[in-house]
Amino acid sequence: MTETTGARSRTRRNGKGLQIERIFTTPGVHPYDQVAWEKRDIVQTNWKSGETIFEQRGVEFPDFWSVNASTIVTTKYFRGAVGTPEREQGLKQLVDRVVLTYVRAGKEHGYFASDEDAEIFEHELTYALVHQVFSFNSPVWFNVGTKSPQQVSACFILSVDDSMDSILNWYKEEGFIFKGGSGAGLNLSRIRSSKELLSSGGTASGPVSFMRGADASAGTIKSGGATRRAAKMVVLDVDHPDIEEFIETKAREEDKIRALRDAGFDMDLGGKDIVSVQYQNANNSVRVTDEFMRAVEEGKEFGLTSRKDGSVISTVDAKTLFAKMAKAAWECADPGIQYDDTINAWHTNPETGRITASNPCSEYMSLDNSSCNLASLNLLKFLRDDNTFDVETYQAVVELVITAMDISICFADFPTEPIGETTRNYRQLGIGYANLGALLMATGHGYDSEGGRSLAASITSLLTGAAYKRSAEIAGVVGPYNGYARNADSHKRVMRKHQAANDEVRPIDSMDGSIHRAATKAWDEVVKLGEKNGYRNAQASVLAPTGTIGFMMDCDTTGIEPDFSLVKFKKLVGGGSMQIVNQTIPRALKKMGYTEETIEAIVEYIAEHGHVIDAPGLKTEHYEVFDTAMGARSIQPMGHVKMMAAVQPFLSGAISKTVNLPESATVEEIEDVYLQGWKLGLKALAVYRDMCKVGQPLSDGKAAKEDKKAENEAAPTVEKVIEYRPVRKRLPKRRSSQTTSFAVGGAEGYLTAGTYDNGELGELFLKFGKQGSTLAGVMDAFSIAVSIGLQYGVPLETFVEKFTNLRFEPAGLTDDPDVRMAQSIMDYVFRRLALDYMDFESRSYMGIHSAEERARQLETGSYAPVNGESSDDDDLEDELESLSQSPATTPAKKTDAERAKAADKSGAGAADARKADATVHSSAELIEQFVGKVNDAPICLTCGTKMRPAGSCYVCEGCGSTSGCS
Question: Which UniProt keywords apply (predicted)?
């Protein structure tokens, strides 16, 4: 991300307010004028039914935005009825609607030192949004600048007391929050248990019974009008007398689902009978204390207390209760766990009240009846072409975005007056990031490694340090938050805790070292400025799921998550789709010192197998760099927990993340994850054991196979059997042939290939070794077998697919300029045959190109012949050309020619691109093909696409819908 130098020098008018510095923009040039725009037709269908669910033609987007990003933004965020003049027609209108609202509010409330500063703020914010450097959370795009209430917060925490009025008000407040496109959480521990008496003498219903009504209400309301189902969190303290009933609530409903499914009812997610199952619209979490966790470790009894007077009603064995939590989570992924004492130890406002609950995804934790608006930075945008991290620009963008987020509270509307009052008094913000997993991979850091954790910790520390530094600066201009004076000592104590945690980070390499130095300086300024000015915001940072907005920014990974898989599904501009190896992989390989030939071979291998195990030329010690959430080398559960622990000390709030475990995981393993989460200082944790839920539909591919199997089993037996056999087509007596001499790893050999009259390959002979030797005999037998196969109609493509990438000695460099490196003799022979006898399209999908084609790709970004003969589908070529641009190239102001020069020089290019199978509609479905098993994730109710995890929620690649807050 290239900073515009020389633009900082300008005349200012004296006055109290923030002086906004330029980061990307140029004086006198509007950011829109630095972008090439194009019109696109956005048509979205439900691939299962074939129904068109959305259509808007001629919408305007930057040419570097992906099809997916423009589709999701158009369908989710454009306001106005489609087909009317009020409908937004492009990204400019959307960004202007939001940014200009922020600028007006900033001027009105005295944030800027001058009108010039306000204009710079407008231009920088516009540039950063258009270039996908960051994004606000979804409610901002839904509501800001429209006639609707200006709800900007995605996260809400409610409060409910032990009275019927309060309980019914809870239902009402949740409904309004869901309607505005947000999620809410609350703690039900004030409600008397079913073991306690009412004032009338009867027995109380207990909190679990009241959860039924709230769950039914949530299930009927779609968030933001029609964008996604409502998201909610329900928390209960571990010392509540009804805690066992709460723990087992969703597990028992899962038993019900199984029974009804076995009885023939439609219990798939979205099925007509699933509505009879309760408690499915909320995430449940148990709030545990240090006292309880110590009792678990020591095997002691633990008291469950009355809600009325705090007396102990009964005691339980702490270890047994803890095991029940783990067992329920093993069965259905609920409940999660929240660590109460850790949460409140980092609380900046304890004089106002304790933190008792969180939002639905567990990243926002603050006072009851409060809200938080979110924004996330795209970390990969700060990685320069030379693989250094642009620390100065990163800090500047954090300060810009946190300023905008604070301004939004000045004009925001809130669903209830108590929430509005608390939010205006404490001004909680939640800046975070996305693409951490992609950044780690691109820079050669394993997600589950000390280097990866050190880099993540440094980035997060600088994020929060820069945010609080700007918060203190804003406090010097417009004053600290209203509740600061009451909590000043506690707030400053937490700032010093963050600073001390930063001092404990031990950088491992130059990249995290430079970031950590900036973080250390930022925290020094935070403490110093805070003493002078106080702080504008009670909270500054969280790590959210970044589901929909992650797609808006074209991020490879969401929030703190690692990469989902090494091979991705991608839509094409003109329709259709392809599968492509992550573009961060060749960049990572290049950084780690691999040659272009080796990079190409590794990328081709990944395209074929979906993983790096036994990839040609890849050192085993580098495997960890390419570990992913799914696939053959998936990250171990404790790898996720350790990454969360690395960044948690540098967040005001917490982290939205689920620790995934394999289907074979035991209850004891989940217990250990919960226990280690407490010991490592996490604030909250959720787990998901693969395939633990019943109410998830199978992919259509598998269902189709099952249907076919049932059809075959039910088919009547017929006496007459018609058998079809291939017929051998022999070569003519006189045929053309060519002989190629070759050397692989210093060993020499000869390849003779004979063809039919039409030029089609029909036989081959391999000579390798002395005549009469065992090796020569094996080669003769192999040649005959392949030749007969070719003559019986086995396509050459099949042999190429099976025998390329075979790995055995001799292997290494060859004397063939078209195949510079081979993993074995077989690998070389069939690559040579593919180049000589297969058409361009077929071998290109297999990643096999000649030296001339590779040179052409470096010059033009495309392997295809200039004259268009035997070229790929035009849409595919256009997309491959755009994909050859380095994904981490910073959004500097470039001409088309300059962008072409920025093409990836890894040597991998488009070798990783292949047409996607017609049955595949998402990366989640693509990984199913590689691992050979169904991915345990829900199907999107909007477009029918298999969703994938994002934090504690799921997100749809097809339309951007999420199962939680974004």
Answer: Cobalamin, Cobalt, Disulfide bond, DNA synthesis, Nucleotide-binding, Oxidoreductase
